[in-house]
User: Fold this.
Amino acid sequence: MSTPYAKLPGWVEYGLIPLINLAVAFLVAGLVVLLVGENPLEAAYHLINGAFGRGEYIGFTLYYATTFIFTGLAVAVAFHAGLFNIGGEGQAYVGGIGVALACLWLDQTMPWYVVFPLAIVGSAFFGALWAFLPGWLQAKRGSHIVITTIMFNFIASSLMVYLLTRVLKPLGSMAPQTRTFAEGGQLPKLDWLLSIFGPNIGTAPFNISFLLALAAAFAVWVLIWRTRLGYEMRTMGHSPSAARYAGISESRITVVAMMIS
Assistant:
């Protein structure tokens, strides 16, 4: 599953195939727009302009893309091990609890660069703990990972509602949310980075978590293609029977891959 039988040239894998995917996506979306009686070219213009038309739009696009980078990496790690992790949404919910707890605890007394690594550790711990349960159920009980992770998404959503309405909500507040994080719980914006190239991101909350996402992408590449654990994960994803023959523990890789994911 992880390694193709014949490696494609770089210009095909990283250039041509993404362009074909993008063209097909626009074609299908355009047909849907046409079926509802609208102009697909006008829709495509608003789509592209809304994402890249102004500096502020670019800032919001990169801000929202940051989350998709993390969740895409999460799915990729599990997929290399032959696991179809549908629980990224729930794991992100619960990982967010770790971020919130770190910020609510220290944001008024510590600077952001102290809170930031603690929030990363907290989110990783809570997210891994939430992914551990479906991984363990798959490894030890044979419960299908797709079904359990989908179910855990709904459980995580309910848990978030309970925490926001009963535990983390400030006294006297009607809104289901925590208090606003103080300065120590807010990350510096990357307006200076885009300003080098000209655009002004305005009010877009584009911040240094984007750099963390890029670092995570590199770390996942190193894990999958340059470590023994990554080799074991790819082996199991490509051929579980070969992995078992080589002495690789299927249950260990399942749990570890899900926790990393």
Residues 68-260 form one domain. The mean pLDDT is 92. Residues 112-141 form the longest helix (30 residues).
